[in-house]
């Protein structure tokens, strides 16, 4: 890492006010006021109010040059320099007037220093009525605390105002909006009107911005209608607030849609362009970004530092680094630190750290002070690259220069370490932020632990993401407690990530509890809960919640619709899926994204309608490799391996490069068709022809193909020759092949290896137990089951779901609470009689209704679902069932008989294979 720059940094914030003036004493010449009953000020000795406010000419002359300098610094947003100038002004004995003090208050807020803000407030309080009771100064104090995020102080300052005009109300509304409390902001907005103060356009924009920033775009747009009804026409800034809010919440598609709607009635300005360009970057919409660049040039909009920085970021994130450099060189006004930081970030994205440091030095040569934002970019990159020592060294260098790492620095470090997989280091950094005594590693010795950096909502969100991926539920709950204690759960992103965490660790009850306590639910929050239920195989609940979300007047986004479609596939809810297809067509009239096309194809495939899946595939233009892979997986699910192979032949002719997933699907198709030699050919061609290096998943496919063919010894040889270590999935594949061929010798080797890498998976014990049972070793069978019980492992309850109309009917093993259970059992009894008359004797269903039944046995829950489908659905309507366990032979044979006897099409997805029963046969060919 290059040495720290030689230029001296600006003095740290604590040195801005000298000891002499930190108390911000007012000169003794300041007149003392008292107030008469009519509210008019009067000085002792009957001096006129005008004279009372006047300052001595000498003091006024002393203050004038400082006032001009402070004003220039504030306009240039050089907050530190403004505060330094003010400190110098106080050192010579000059005091601010009612015009200068608001600018000083603004500089204190811009610098982000609560201590200086409190000192400035004290100065106003000691300045007599000329300052303390001036409405402009009072409003500036409220606005200062609002900008600092100190809502309590903003409210206290607001309460002390003798007269509250629209500016003061708007500042307090903005404080709550900025704190992520839009409901409180809305209540104040209503209270303002009740007090007789009419909101202006800025007030409306502040409220709109508050809802937009938390992602509640529906509420923000609803306020647009309210504005018009109350006689206020939304301006360009109003639209900019919503667009900016969408971008801040990474709702890039929504931002783009609102931008297009805005263009129908308003002409975008420079702020609009700067706001929407990050959405272009997020969507990789380079073409639209270039059109916006052209719009700026064509309409004579000045290429200022804000648009320039957004363009540089957009081009660099889209990989157009040369364009970004051209923009940097053509910015019309003097480049500020933001623009230089974007150039540095450009080189970092390019992987050219030497150029990034070169730009860093050029920035200093250009007369600009490097700030903590500049260093944060380097910290984030070193952490992402796993170069933690360089990141820590940079922290140390910053401290040595007199700058203090801020919460963004820590967030960059934690996120980077997490992304590189350095989970322990990321957690240690978070522990330091908490002030934990455990975080005493050498890495932190250079930081002043007397005032640790307080975690923000961004920090908590990053740490929760880490814990979610690692499934560390205990630590996740600790962080939840910390967030509650520090009032961070009101942050919508923290709450949404908590819902996600609990959903991923299987605790949907806690996920739902967190969700219910969220006051300002947005689309992201709903998505987290929907995903939690889907992830935990409660797709029917996810669909019910999706309907509730629509009733709450929230508009689903791309992710919401994807989750709903996946849930339809899991429950075989074809009717619901068709309604979603119609909704998608209406919402994306110009053609929907490839991600939705894939979700639709997946839904139709899992609902048994391969024809509609193919129709979506044909209508999707252009097709990327993900679309081709999804169609192949649909054929694979329906045990149509030749469809996969034929589609691969078409793919080769389309000039689209296959990816590793394509070959996983292709090898799986060869396994279904029993094409061993063809599979070897595809496997060898991966690297030789397509340059795709086989991964562990590809080796697992080959082991599966060999195992299915009975080549178990050969599959073990392939495992030994692999360049990667086998995982649980591979050994599980070997174990299942041993079950298929009753090979106890290889099975014991596979089980021994499997239990080492995955000791808590119940299905592994079940398969191994069944191998012993198939070979008649009952004592060994019981020993495996006892070992599983000793480890506290439990088999997930078997469940089948029947989709009928708009309802999903679950049938869980041991649960006889269904309202039609008596009719269901009677129907099964009639069916067993017909089976016996035809020479087939099925097992009875009733012994497996007991919750104490053997967990290793099939509970035949799909039989319940089939019987209920027969008695509740039209004769010409297919019966669609999904199950969370693989079908047993007995159930499979029974449903084949029922499909012929009742002349019904019965579709069953068991999570492993899709079964289409018709006329006494199954599409799987009795091999699954």
From TrEMBL:
Spans of the PPR repeats are 165-199, 200-234, 235-269, 336-370, 371-405, 522-556, 624-658
What UniProt keywords apply to this chain's record, in alphabetical order? Repeat, Transit peptide
Q: Does the keyword Ribosomal protein apply?
A: no
> Where is this chain compositionally biased, Polar residues type?
20-32
Q: Which Pfam families match?
A: DYW_deaminase, E_motif, PPR, PPR_2, PPR_3
Q: Which residue ranges does the record annotate as region Disordered?
A: 1-60
- PROSITE patterns on file: PPR
Q: What is this protein called?
A: DYW domain-containing protein
Which species is listed as the source?
Answer: Urochloa decumbens
Residue ranges with Pro residues bias: 1-14
Task: List each copy of the DYW domain by range.
Answer: 853-928
């Amino acid at each position: 890492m290059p040495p720290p720059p030689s230029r001296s940094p600006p003095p740290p914030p604590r040195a801005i006010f000298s000891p002499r003036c930190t108390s911000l004493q007012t000169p003794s010449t300041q007149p003392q006021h008292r107030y008469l009953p009519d509210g008019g000020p009067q000085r002792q000795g009957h001096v006129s109010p005008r004279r009372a406010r006047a300052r001595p000419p000498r003091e006024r002359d002393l203050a004038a040059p400082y006032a001009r300098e402070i004003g220039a610094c504030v306009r240039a947003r050089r907050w530190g320099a403004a505060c330094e100038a003010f400190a110098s002004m106080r050192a010579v004995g000059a005091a601010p007037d009612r015009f200068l003090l608001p600018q000083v208050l603004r500089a204190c807020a811009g610098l982000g220093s609560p201590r200086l803000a409190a000192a400035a407030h004290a100065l106003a309080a000691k300045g007599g009525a000329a300052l303390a009771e001036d409405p402009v100064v009072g409003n500036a104090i409220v606005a200062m605390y609002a900008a600092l995020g100190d809502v309590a102080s903003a409210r206290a300052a607001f309460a002390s105002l003798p007269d509250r005009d629209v500016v003061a109300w708007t500042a307090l509304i903005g404080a709550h909006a900025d704190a992520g409390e839009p409901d409180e902001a809305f209540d104040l907005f209503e209270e303002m009107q009740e007090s007789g103060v009419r909101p202006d356009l800025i007030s409306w924009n502040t409220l709109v911005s508050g809802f937009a920033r938390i992602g509640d775009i529906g509420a923000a747009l609803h306020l647009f209608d309210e504005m018009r009804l109350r006689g206020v026409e939304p301006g360009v800034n109003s639209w900019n607030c919503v667009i900016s809010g969408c971008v801040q919440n990474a709702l890039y598609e929504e931002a783009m849609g609102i931008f297009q709607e805005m263009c129908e009635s308003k002409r975008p300005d420079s702020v609009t362009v700067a706001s929407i360009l990050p959405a272009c970057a997020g969507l990789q919409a380079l073409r639209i970004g270039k059109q916006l660049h052209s719009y700026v040039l064509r309409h004579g909009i000045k290429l200022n530092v804000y648009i320039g920085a957004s363009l540089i970021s957009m081009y660099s994130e889209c990989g157009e680094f040369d364009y970004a450099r051209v923009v940097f060189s053509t910015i019309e006004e003097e480049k500020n630190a933001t623009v230089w930081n974007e150039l540095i970030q450009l080189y970092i994205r390019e992987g050219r750290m030497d150029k990034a440091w070169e730009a860093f030095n050029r920035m200093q040569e250009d007369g600009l002070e490097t700030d903590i934002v500049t260093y944060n970019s380097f910290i984030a990159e070193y952490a992402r690259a796993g170069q933690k020592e360089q990141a820590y060294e940079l922290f140390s260098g910053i401290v040595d220069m007199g700058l203090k790492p801020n919460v963004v620095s820590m967030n960059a470090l934690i996120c980077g370490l997490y992304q590189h997989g350095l989970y322990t280091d990321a957690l240690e950094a978070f522990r330091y932020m908490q002030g934990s005594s455990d975080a005493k590693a050498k890495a932190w010795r250079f930081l002043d632990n007397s005032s640790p950096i307080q975690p923000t909502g961004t920090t908590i969100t990053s740490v929760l993401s880490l814990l979610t991926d690692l499934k560390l539920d205990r630590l996740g709950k600790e962080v939840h407690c910390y967030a509650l204690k520090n009032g961070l759960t009101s942050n919508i992103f923290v709450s949404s990530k908590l819902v996600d965490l609990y959903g991923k660790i299987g605790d949907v009850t806690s996920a739902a509890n967190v969700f219910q306590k969220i006051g300002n639910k947005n689309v992201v929050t709903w998505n987290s809960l929907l995903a939690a239920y889907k992830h935990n195989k409660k797709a029917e609940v996810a669909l019910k919640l999706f309907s509730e979300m629509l009733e709450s007047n929230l508009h689903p986004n791309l992710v919401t619709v994807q989750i709903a479609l996946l849930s339809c596939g899991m429950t075989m809810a074809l009717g619901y899926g068709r309604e979603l297809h119609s909704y998608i067509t209406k919402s994306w009239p110009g053609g929907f994204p490839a991600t939705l096309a894939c979700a639709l194809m997946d839904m139709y495939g899992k609902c048994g309608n391969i024809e509609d899946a193919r129709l979506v595939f044909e209508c999707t233009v252009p097709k990327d490799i993900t679309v081709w892979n999804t169609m192949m997986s649909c054929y694979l699910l329906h045990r149509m391996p030749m469809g996969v192979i034929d589609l691969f032949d078409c793919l080769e002719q389309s000039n689209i490069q296959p990816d590793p997933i394509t070959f996983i699907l292709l090898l799986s198709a060869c396994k279904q068709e029993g094409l061993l030699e063809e599979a070897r050919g595809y496997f060898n061609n991966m690297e030789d022809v397509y340059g795709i290096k086989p991964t562990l998943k590809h080796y697992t496919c080959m082991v599966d193909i060999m195992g299915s063919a009975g080549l178990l010894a050969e599959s073990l040889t392939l495992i030994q020759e692999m360049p990667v270590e086998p995982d649980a999935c591979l050994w599980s594949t070997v174990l299942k092949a041993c079950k298929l061929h009753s090979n106890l010798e290889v099975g014991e080797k596979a089980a021994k290896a499997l239990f080492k890498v995955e000791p808590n998976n119940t299905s592994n014990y079940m398969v191994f137990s069944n191998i012993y049972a198939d070979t008649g070793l009952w004592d060994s069978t019981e020993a495996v089951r006892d070992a599983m019980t000793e480890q506290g492992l439990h088999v997930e309850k078997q469940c089948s779901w029947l989709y009928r109309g708009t309802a999903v009917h679950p049938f869980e093993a041991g649960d006889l609470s269904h309202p039609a259970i008596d009719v269901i059992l009677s129907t099964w009894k009639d069916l067993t009689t017909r089976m016996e008359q035809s020479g087939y004797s099925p097992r009875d269903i009733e012994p497996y209704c007991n919750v104490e039944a053997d967990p290793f046995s099939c509970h035949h829950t799909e039989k319940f679902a089939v019987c209920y489908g027969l008695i509740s659905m039209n004769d010409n309507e297919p019966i669609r069932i999904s199950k969370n366990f693989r079908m047993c032979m007995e159930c499979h044979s029974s449903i084949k008989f029922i499909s012929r006897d009742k002349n019904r099409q019965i579709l069953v997805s068991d999570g492993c294979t899709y079964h289409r029963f018709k006329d006494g046969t199954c599409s799987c060919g009795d091999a699954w």
